[in-house]
Amino acid sequence: MTTTTRRRVGIAGALVGAASAGVAAAALAKRYAVGRIRLRPDTEASEPFGELRGRERTLVTSDGKALHIVIDGPEDAPLTVVFCHGYCLNLESWHYQRKDLRENYRIVLWDQRSHGRSQRAGADDSTIDRLGEDLAEVIEQFVPGPCVLVGHSMGGMTIMALADRRPDLFGDKIRAVSLISTSAGKLAELTLGLPAMLSKVVHKVAPTTVSMLGKRGALADRARNAGSDIAFLITRFVGFGDSKNVSPTVVDFAESMIRATPTEVVADFYPALMNHDKLSALDVLDPVPTVILVGDRDWLTPPDHSKAMAAALPKAQLTEVPDTSHLIQLERPGVVNDALRDLLKRVDL
User: What are the AB hydrolase-1 domain coordinates in residue numbering (predicted)?
Assistant: First the structure.
């Protein structure tokens, strides 16, 4: 080996070594950061997330998909509260609200298709309109009397899709609605807190990127599982406004639901969320008491989207919660629970 060759090999080795050291240092820093977060006092460490029990049922939809249903609370309660969870979550995301209301109200929770313990659907059947049809079938089979609908994020869109397709249900069967951290449309215009030019680039490449990941779902899922510390930090930063003080146990709980959602499901529903537009259907909700809740630091469904819904619903009550992001029902359960209790008191039976 010549002197020049040895020099080149030495330089290459040094670069590889430096790169490896940089990766190792970044990994160490990440673990250190997560470790420090987990060592902080955690008021929710003993909270029994995922351990509440109810009466499990299965609904086979008109297109043949099995939906996982849980019924809780007294069977003879005069009013039923139906909870519709968000994108990449499941019915357990309503833990605090279920725990608070189950003593006095009949509760119906369900895993939206392809989420939680419900059956997977293909991309063609992963639409907001189909979710609205699913909700209509849930109400028909499991809600014998009047009810109140509560929807977070994609769950709120599900309620809007139901309003668009079954306006006759609102007023008699459905007596009130709560729309939490959701949007009536134009999600494809979100800036995500980025500068305008960068945001345009992100939205331009996102559909192709998500589609590509969906086609390589198994590989992407393995990568997501391997990067659980990174996922923890992202969930903490994006999902919670007051990220410095949020319980690590709550972040873990939210992140575990997101990670349990297969990448293919994330990809299948992404176009539906971006194309969702149900602003014109909101007037169906006007005759019933409606409460809109949003965190002032919500990047995924920002306050402007809630304000647009409130403008279309002059009788609705809009509450913007300070220092709070998208997972408001987990971050500020007391605020959400109080709002729901106030709403339920307004229902005429």
Answer: 80-333
